[in-house]
Amino acid sequence: MRLTQSIAPALLLLAAGVAQAASGWGFDDGSVQIAAKKAGEAVKEKISQTSPLSKPVSLGTTDTLKLSLTAKDNGKGKRPHQAFLVLQEPESGLEAPFPLTVKENGKAVAQISHKDLPVQLLLANKPLKASVVIASFGSAQGLNTPVFDVKIETDANVPPPAYEKPLRYGKQPEIHHIFRPDPKSPPKVISLFFGLAVIATLPALLIGWVALGGNVNHLSKAIGAALLSHATFFGSILAMEFVFFMYYTSWNLFQVLPVIAAVGAATVFSGTKALGEVQSRRLAGER
Amino acid sequence: MSADPLQALANAGQGKSTRSLLRVIILALIAAAAIASRLFSVIRFESIIHEFDPWFNFRATKYLVANGFYNFWDWFDDRTWHPLGRVTGGTLYPGLMVTSGVIYHALRALTIPVDIRNICVLLAPAFSGLTAIAAYLLTNEMTPSSSAGLLAALFMGIAPGYISRSVAGSYDNEAIAIFLLVFTFYLWIKALKQGSMLWGALCALFYGYMVASWGGYAFITCLLPLHAFVLICMGRYSTRLYVAYTTWYALGTLASMQIPFVGFLPVKTSEHMPALGIFGFLQLLAFLDYVRSAIPSRQFQTFLWLFAGGTFGVGLLGLVIATSAGIIAPWGGRFYSLWDTNYAKIHIPIIASVSEHQPTAWPAFFFDLNMLIWLFPVGVYLCFQELADEHVFIVVYALFGSYFAGVMVRLMLTLTPVVCVAAAIAVSTILDTYLSTKSPKPEESQAAEGSEGKKAGKSGLKAASKPVVGIYGLWGKSMMVSALAVYLLLFVLHCTWVTSNAYSSPSVVLASRLPDGSQHIIDDYREAYQWLRQNTREDAKIMSWWDYGYQIGGMADRPTLVDNNTWNNTHIATVGKAMSSSEEVSYPIMRQHEVDYVLVVFGGLLGYSGDDINKFLWMVRIAEGIWPDEVSERSFFTPRGEYRVDGEATETMKNSLMYKMSYYNYNNLFPPGQAVDRMRNARLPEVGPTLSTLEEAFTSENWIIRIYKVKDLDNIGRDHAAAAAFDRGTKKKKAIKKRGPRSLRVD
Amino acid sequence: MRSLFSFLAFLSAAVVSALSTSGNRLLVVLEDVAEKENYSKFLGDLEGRGFELSFENPKSESLALFHLGERTYDHIIFFPTKAKGLGPNLTPNILVDFMNAKGNVLVTLSSGVATPNSLVSLLSELDIQLPADRTGLVVDHFNYDASTAAETHDVLLLPPPGPVRPDVKNFFGAGAGKDEVLAFPRGVGAALGSSELLTPVLRAPRTAYSYNPKEQAEVVDDLFGAGEQLALVSAFQARNSARFTLVGSAEMLQDKWFDAEASKVGGKKAAKTFNREFAKRVSGWTFNEIGVLRVNWIEHHLDEAVAVNESNPSIYRIKNDVKYTISLSEYAWTSWAPLTLPADDVLQLEFSMLSPFHRLPLHLDAAHSSATESAYSTSFKLPDQHGIFNFKVNYKRPFLSNIEEKNTVSVRHMAHDEWPRSFVISGAWPWIAGIGVTVAGWLAFCALWMYSAPVGGKRVESKKTQ
């Protein structure tokens, strides 16, 4: 597209210069006419090779644009080899040529409607630039001049023609896709508060027990009766909690299982004895 | 066999130790028989893993043995569900593999090196021996008659309903799960009877093992609370029940939550809510019990009503809120399909497409259980007669088991144990009644009227006033006993026949009979999988319908797109769409999923019914469930509503990838115009389908497996149809467009 | 280590071939050996660049592009032939196979000579359309060489081509003198389809058009193409980077237009033609002497402070930090050089499963670059989704050989012991406290239950005895 953009002004300048010199091809009696299909009323505007129309003509979906002119070589009507109406989409610079039907005397006509337009031109946002190119073999200067703009009116009821941008190799938009956002924790203050609240239940529980008369007065009695069993039993309960703690922090299952088996066995064996002692106290009415 | 223990019992009636010794020997023999009858498949074929799911279990076990427990636990399997991968360690029930792994390592420690495959193949028979013993224990809890237990063990050992899932090579979760199911029930009854925390804890332990092994654990999770609930409703609440249930629930739930696949489900899904509800209910009852002992009865009445109403209201409200807020998952699709057999067909085709999820046909009951099916009600009736807590269990189990077995073929498996137990109770009662050589004297029977005990079988008419019951004639007794013996023998014959003929085929290898009667093995599956293994890149992705995913993974060792672990419906539907759409639609899907080969199963040449064309409608349905606009089941049926593959087939059908792959080049086997699909008895069109995006890579001997290679994008940018036409020599039509606008090239 | 290795590889590569990167066996298909003289400078240049030229008649029976499944030539040039068809060994299918086997083809046309059927159908497979009846002549009444085609206007004089797009390297027109022109005598214009593999190298000026001199001598009623839609020289690069170039005018490669002078209509002075350089570049591009990219090495590794930092592991974990580096070289006539990107272009890395999760620009990594290679790298955090992902560098640009590098890695989930510990998560503190309190409470309860003496022992006793 760069190429187009850089060449186009130069060519236009050149063409303009040629037209002014009037030492080559040109045209006369130029007119552009928009004919609607149903309503007979047609808008017709004169065009000249020196100055393009200031206002764009608009082409509706059912309209036909008719361009007619008389090509002249050095003022004389003559048939050129090349007589094109070129429509250009200004944004991309895409061009579509439409050859004019030319008679011997230079009278030339072209008719364009929506169905003749390439899809990129149909979907243009800005008015299309129409220019006329008239040239032929030999030494006569050709003519290439903008003549008018065409605004493509689209019908809101008709879906626009499908146009998928063709694949062109180039860089693509960047993607930074967060598949799943990280989990969030509530503010630390709240966690801390509730954590402390939970911890506070422990003293509350202990105080409650003490208030209801809980005590450990029989400890000496129990130890006196079965020191080893009680020590092992309570110790094994503690040990079990320690094993759980180790499992939580560092051990894996295969380290934990044998230890649990050992501790569990100790609990069971010492437990029968220790709890038997407790039972004996209960039976003796001391609990 | 069945006559043996009875005879022995009759002879060796004296002496307790002789009896127990006999019992042990008989049990051992029963276990041996149970194992032996499951070895048909190994003898007929070879020591091979069967069917579909077992291939995955086998593969997982190999991984476990090779990589150790923790690697297995954290296993990310990048060779299935390409490209999603599967967090296998977290989405399977590890019990089976860990069991095999432990056995493997134990045997190694004993310096008995056994190939892991053989352990896997023989695990199910070995556990079926244990199941027989567990059935013996369970039945012994029901009735004092020891013959009932032995009979139950025998029935359990050879009932086809159980054998169907536990022949050698059927290395599936059910292989060990049925043992665990029966044993857990035994422990539950034991705990309930004794009100013992120890038995309750053991029950929870085995429940945990069960959870680790099989998704069917939910059956226990629902049945035990139900039993407890029925007992409570019958006014049989007791501290024994409280102790047994709470111990089981608390420990069992904790145990089950250790399985990553289960995780928090026990506190989150509706299926587990009954157990939680009954747990709470029992706490209330215990509390009320305490309150009743503390306050006067009048006040207690009011208190009870207020309290019960309030709790119920709060509980219900909580449940509704939690469910609607999404904290508790609503009932899953599989659950609904248990109540409405059409539900799955309409809403979740992926569940309905599995043949073992179909409702059971009536003959299947007789086929799988033979005479047990008519002894079963008798046994249940006898349980009603006594109706202790454990008998209530049998009744509840029988009710639910039969319902579920009627809904889904595969739940026959959960029914079988209770049928065996109930039938054993019935048979033993009959035998005990008739095998007594003593003729009762009328006075005696009058005297014994109060106790009734042994002759429960004939004591149904309790209401009648003092009937003189008893069997007097030796003739009648022997008639009855011999008739029963014949039945038992027939049962054994039936079981053997069913096992050997129906349940021992590995389905990976097909057997057929040649005209001269000799057996001919059709080994197309392994031929094709071996081809894949030897001729494709190690990371070549194979697309096939999900049925073959595990086999490809296990036998061909190639990554697959979908497999029998149907966790991702969308991914399966994607494959279904690729199979059921035209090449132009399928190709981008296959490219996107990096498919290298497509595998289809085609039974047209051999008349093999389990092929993909027969399963095709399920693919269409599953795909339609996700893309109703792009795939429509209707367009695969002719205007007259027929599903055809011949010349009359619809255009959609003929253009579908599956059809093309199945029949590609098929008519070259026949004289022109004579191509016949022997499975569907259809004459195929003279011109076979053409494929442009795939090329045939392999077709097995009997054309059962056909493998296609997915072509790369055309090197010079044409679409495949054009490229294929060019290769065939068809000249490209010149783009003649006199009419219409010029097309502009944009750079 | 890697860079050393690649440097050695480069050295050996440089010694083996100092010309095309894909071999030097060049087949010239020419009808008349005498015609060779017209192209002596062009062919001499090729030979000078190290190609081994073999000349064959298109109808030749003995000509074979393949021997035992291997290519017998690396490149082919077609000069215009009068025959309507090429021989049995140059059918379009064989030519397509030749390209599929990474062979390069340069086709030249001429408006005076009808294009053979075989080439027309090959072109149409490549989505290039020639004028109907295989004849067409491009004229421009505004840009012609006044000295040789004052009347016929069929020698077009064009400025050397600019880049196709701003982000594409200009291989063919760069460095041309300001007043140098490209002569395009009596050529055929082609219409390109919208294929992404095609790129026009030289487009006709806006006022040029193509007509059939036999039928449309008087008036152009049915226009084949005009303006920039008419490609005079076009390039096609297949997916396997096999190259195909269509030069609309064989004459522009002839000696008489090399280093000649031309006078543009309306121009003040005669301009030098750029044709020789252009021919060198076009043939050089087609025969893999320029615009060839090479991936030297690819490396990805964990970008985390861990003890084991394996190179190119096959498995990562979700949310790992990963660094990816790719080293690329570009071949320019005689040697490998570091790849430099045009200002508007970037090298992108995709991390994709089914669709890209990340598409990130790769930045020049000077530490790993050298005189012959340039390394590009980027670091990023893997997505929080397990699966089988691809590191994908898909660098396809017009005129550069395709780079499509896919490195598959598995991204696994967190193992059970890789999650952040619960005491790190502040939200878990109340729960941990709960566990601690329960444990302590349980121990206290045990002690109390076993060792508590009754208070008001009588009441307890009386209750017991009830």
UniProtKB/TrEMBL annotation, chain A:
Keyword annotations of the record: Endoplasmic reticulum, Membrane, Signal, Transmembrane, Transmembrane helix
Compartments (UniProt record): Endoplasmic reticulum membrane
Domain Ribophorin II C-terminal intervals: 179-282
Keyword Transmembrane helix: yes
Tree of life domain: Eukaryota
Cellular component terms per the entry's GO annotation: oligosaccharyltransferase complex
Residue stretches spanning the membrane: 189-212, 224-247, 253-272
Membrane-related topology note: Multi-pass membrane protein
Signal peptide (UniProt feature, chain positions): 1-21
Keyword Ubl conjugation recorded: no
GO biological process: protein N-linked glycosylation
UniProt protein name: Ribophorin II C-terminal domain-containing protein
Organism annotation: Staphylotrichum longicolle
Species lineage: Eukaryota, Fungi, Dikarya, Ascomycota, Pezizomycotina
UniProtKB/TrEMBL annotation, chain B:
Family statement drawn from the similarity comment of this UniProt entry: Belongs to the STT3 family.
Segments crossing the lipid bilayer: 21-43, 91-107, 119-139, 145-163, 175-191, 197-230, 242-267, 273-291, 303-329, 364-384, 391-409
This protein's record includes keyword Transmembrane: yes
Gene3D superfamilies for this protein: 3.40.50.12610
E.C. designation(s): 2.4.99.18
Job description of the protein: Catalytic subunit of the oligosaccharyl transferase (OST) complex that catalyzes the initial transfer of a defined glycan (Glc(3)Man(9)GlcNAc(2) in eukaryotes) from the lipid carrier dolichol-pyrophosphate to an asparagine residue within an Asn-X-Ser/Thr consensus motif in nascent polypeptide chains, the first step in protein N-glycosylation. N-glycosylation occurs cotranslationally and the complex associates with the Sec61 complex at the channel-forming translocon complex that mediates protein translocation across the endoplasmic reticulum (ER).
Catalytic activity annotation: a di-trans,poly-cis-dolichyl diphosphooligosaccharide + L-asparaginyl-[protein] = N(4)-(oligosaccharide-(1->4)-N-acetyl-beta-D-glucosaminyl-(1->4)-N-acetyl-beta-D-glucosaminyl)-L-asparaginyl-[protein] + a di-trans,poly-cis-dolichyl diphosphate + H(+)
Keywords: Endoplasmic reticulum, Glycoprotein, Glycosyltransferase, Magnesium, Manganese, Membrane, Metal-binding, Transferase, Transmembrane, Transmembrane helix
STT3/PglB/AglB core domain residues: 541-591
Gene name tied to this protein: STT3
Identification of the protein by name: Dolichyl-diphosphooligosaccharide--protein glycosyltransferase subunit STT3
Ranges of compositional bias, category Basic residues: 730-747
Membrane topology, from the record: Multi-pass membrane protein
From TrEMBL, chain C:
Record domain OST48 N-terminal: where: 25-286
Pfam families in UniProt: OST48_MD, OST48_N
Gene Ontology terms: biological process: protein N-linked glycosylation via asparagine
Residue span, OST48 middle domain: 310-452
Coiled coil (UniProt feature): none
UniProt subcellular location: Endoplasmic reticulum membrane; Membrane
Topology relative to the membrane: Single-pass type I membrane protein
Cellular compartments per GO CC: oligosaccharyltransferase complex
Transmembrane segments: 428-451
UniProt keyword list: Endoplasmic reticulum, Membrane, Signal, Transmembrane, Transmembrane helix
Function: Subunit of the oligosaccharyl transferase (OST) complex that catalyzes the initial transfer of a defined glycan (Glc(3)Man(9)GlcNAc(2) in eukaryotes) from the lipid carrier dolichol-pyrophosphate to an asparagine residue within an Asn-X-Ser/Thr consensus motif in nascent polypeptide chains, the first step in protein N-glycosylation. N-glycosylation occurs cotranslationally and the complex associates with the Sec61 complex at the channel-forming translocon complex that mediates protein translocation across the endoplasmic reticulum (ER).
Family according to the record: Belongs to the DDOST 48 kDa subunit family.
Descriptive protein name: Dolichyl-diphosphooligosaccharide--protein glycosyltransferase subunit WBP1
Gene source species: Staphylotrichum longicolle
